[in-house]
Amino acid sequence: MQAGVDGIIAESGRIDVLVNNAGYGSYGAIEDVPLDEARAQFEVNLFGAARLIQLVLPHMRAQRSGTIVNISSMGGKIHTPLGGWYHGTKFALEGLSDCLRMELKPFGVDVVVVEPGAIRTEWGGIAADNLRKTSGDTAYARQADAMAESLGSESTARRSSPPSVIADTVAKAVTARRPRTRYAVGFGARPLHLPAPRPARPRLRRARRPRHGHADRRSPLGPVRPREPVPQLGPVSRRSPRLPQRGNRGLFTDKPGQQPIRRAAR
Fold this sequence. Notes:
- This protein is α/β, with parallel strands linked by helices.
- Helix content is 41%, strand content 11%.
- The strands form two sheets. Strands 1-2-3-4 form a four-stranded parallel beta sheet, with helices on both faces. A two-stranded antiparallel sheet has the order 5-6.
- Helix 2 runs parallel beside helix 3 (84-104) and helix 4 packs antiparallel against helix 5.
């Protein structure tokens, strides 16, 4: 890897685009897949891409430009039975790309994730063969047979998109002034990428209070006492009353309802 990056820099003097496309699907029950094979899956699908990113970043940061395209999968958004190790690598690549995008924003380097759907390549056949070898004779044999048939069926191959849709998407991303963070392309990619519908919010009904103080069986609040009439007050002047001062004569009352008392000024 280091020799390849050094050769590009020696020949061109800069590096503008990195496309991490290497990957394969190691299908099988998590219980059945040997850990050596699981580690190999992560080495190819995740750590290989991470190492290339580490090698090109010093040059991209120095020139303050560049685009990194990580080819993920719809398997980084959804999950299927007997694909735990494969989905684990794609979920990890999605998270790594999101963190990397935030780190490189101050340096003008873009990070793009391409999420292919079903593409017409040999990927499905290889995954189906590995699945049968790994879990075809174990307790997960029924699931393995059904999943292998789905991966390697002719109907799936006919509906798959050609590889050119991925190449066109990568070219679009690396030439865009402001590329999108994610491109979901290929057969079945967009419908699978739609967010789950929000659950319906429950409608709450307000409890009805009885009008005349009688118990209402439909009301959880029980009987309610009728409201007492509010006493009517006389007209109130908007002007604030003037308090009597020493030396003045006036009529005033000490308590409400009493007759006015005349007091002489001292």
